[in-house]
Amino acid sequence: PGDGYEAWLQYRRTDQGTKLKQYAPYCHIAAVIQDEVMRTAVNELSQGLEAITGHLVDVAETLGESSGILLGIFGASQAIDEAIHADVAGSVRTEGYAIQFDGRTEQIAIGAADSAGLLYGVFHLLRIMAAGGDVKSLNRVENPVNSLRMINQWDNMDGSVERGYAGSSIFYHDNRVAKEYQRIQDYARLLASCGINAIAINNVNVHRVESRLLTDFLPDVTKLAAIFRQYAIKLYLSINYASPMELGGLATADPQNPSVREWWREAAAKVYEAIPDFGGFLVKADSEHRPGPFTYGRDHADGANMLAEAVKPYGGVVIWRCFVYNCKQDWRDRSTDRARAAYDHFRPLDGRFLDNVILQIKNGPIDFQVREPVSPLIGAMPHTNQMIEFQIAQEYTGQQRHVCYLVPQWKEVLDFDTYLQEEGTPVKRIVDGTVHGNPCNGFAAVSNIGSDANWTGHLLAQANLFGYGRLAWNPELSAEEIAKEWIRLTFGSREPLFQTIYDILMNSWEIYESYTTPLGVGFMVNPDHHYGPNVEGYEYSPWGTYHYADNHGVGVDRTTATGTGYTSQYADANKQRYESLATCPDELLLFFHHVPYTHKLHSGKTVIQHIYDTHFEGAERAGQLLAVWERMREQLDEQAYRQVADRLEEQAEHAKEWRDRINTYFYRRSGIPDEQGRTIY
Ligand code: GCW
Fold this sequence. Notes:
Elements: E1 28-30, H1 36-53, E2 58-60, E3 68-73, H2 78-83, H3 86-90, E4 97-102, E5 107-112, H4 115-130, E6 139-142, E7 148-152, E8 172-173, E9 176-177, H5 181-193, E10 198-200, H6 208-211, H7 218-229, E11 234-239, H8 243-246, H9 258-274, E12 280-283, H10 300-311, E13 317-321, H11 341-346, E14 357-362, E15 385-391, H12 407-415, H13 427-431, E16 441-446, H14 462-473, H15 479-491, H16 497-515, E17 553-554, H17 572-579, H18 589-592, E18 595-596, H19 607-630, H20 638-670
Parallel strand pairs: 1-2, 1-3, 3-5, 7-10, 7-16, 10-11, 11-12, 12-13, 13-14, 14-15, 15-16
Antiparallel strand pairs: 4-5, 4-6, 8-9, 17-18
Helix pairs in contact: 1-4, 9-10, 14-15, 15-16, 16-19, 19-20
Bound molecules: 4-O-methyl-beta-D-glucopyranuronic acid (GCW).
4-O-methyl-beta-D-glucopyranuronic acid binds near residues 154, 163, 204, 288 and 395.
């Protein structure tokens, strides 16, 4: 794939320099362009078809008797109403589409209820064609399962990206909005092509300059909104809760203060005047030193509702993050458990939030670790809109220097049965709104892109961005299908390359987990930047992320019987499962229990032997990734080969560092030798 810039939209098959003539009959498009998103859809389709087939494409208002592709909005296009049966059309919802092939006319019809649906339908068709797939059997309706499918940029205006591992920001530099509009548009296109429909363009940690995106920089923001609008993506801003003071010169940011409320109403009015379809505000408040309502003796509902009222007249929403915990904890204090914090803070507020507030909840109770249980807050507030937050950026999963395909992890989270309404209440059904029937819901995730030519630093990390979008659209897709789709579009389907990349992706999370933190205990990383092993890096810090390893054992007792009581935040079936050593799954053992090194896992191994074995095996498997990749050299474009090879080389070395640090630490603590007598220092 060359430098990787076109990602999964290359539309040229790397495995057969030849164009795909089989699709030439479809190089006629009929559409009556009604708005800019529809224009985008038509442009994407004609450019895509030209790239795929090598034929010129013509666009007209009708197809007549010719074969080709018909695009139209139901009720507005007679041709589409004739091509797609009313019953089928009736099952297409907002942003959905029907796509079908008519064998008699040799026409492909894409019909939708709105132009966004057409755009998604076009990308669907292009995905099939670019992979050389069969269009003659097309006959389906697709509706997005989640209404909000959002990306959070953690970009700062100085050009840095918080937890960014792929260069600098494409949105800002030198405390200004960057004027690289083409790049931003190319990003919008990538996002829309996998189903994303919302973006917050600045870091949730909003500092002084970024606060002014709401005011001084509004003309620039308006320009960015216009770029994303073409791709049916709504723009949101992260706001600084203390803006009425920092920007407005008020003496307080108290949500009950009338001048504060007025300040926000005016601020919202100005934003909506400039950007009538503005999405709303994303807020990190009273978290990690950010200001919030606590200062004034108010709670999160007071704070969120004040903002919600300000955007309500325009149909805007407030997305309020639940990543709230005490980051100045005393490590000596064994009664405070960071894992409990989100639930303890928010659950009592259920029913108090306005209906245009959405709580954004991280998938796990701690912080995007390689392994965590599912946050018990998800689904626990039936009268409140909720959305789930994932992190595509690999902060704790190798920082895009190690390969770690995260879709399998996300799938586990989405499929997790909360038992909140008896058996069969998985996270995905809560997040999509079906369980509680709440109006606003969906997915958010921290982006993994930056100014690097290939967007994500590690070329294989593109699969995570793509996979996130596809999963937000339809959480039923499997990690395997998504991986295959991405590989086909990015590298083609030639063997053995295809299978090799597939195996690398599908094994990568397990490999990464095996040489890093064991059995769900988390952290053990270097403070601040979070890259690389440091077993006690956070052990005596105020951040609440401890493992309590001593000479006898390791792990956090979060049971209700003898520990922090965190297990009682789950519905009974899950509480029982985690509470008891007999049923707690091995991979989460140390998250929930403090056990001796000699404790036997369900696997039959002792904890200490498990640590040794996984670390030796994990580092070895990391080394093999490089070896298999090297064998693919002939089949790959040199640039793409190099890029991944360099990272795999670093991973292989760094995995050894992890192995030796972790093994040595636990060997010195426990004094128990490895059964196999391998080298531990
Ligand atoms: O994962 C942690 C990160 C912080 C981040 C915070 C959050 C944006 O280390 O860099 O801040 O989470 O999610 O707010």
